[in-house]
Amino acid sequence: MRALQWLAQREHSRNELRDKLLRLLQDRARRETANATADADADGDGDAADPAAGPSNAPAVEPPCRADAAAEVENLLQWLEAHGYLSQARFVESRVHARQSRYGNLRIRQELQQHGVTLDADAQQALKQTEFHRACEVWRRKFEAPAPDAAARLRQMRFLAGRGFSMDVIRRVVTRGAHPADDAEFNDT
Question: Global pTM?
Answer without folding.
Answer: 0.72
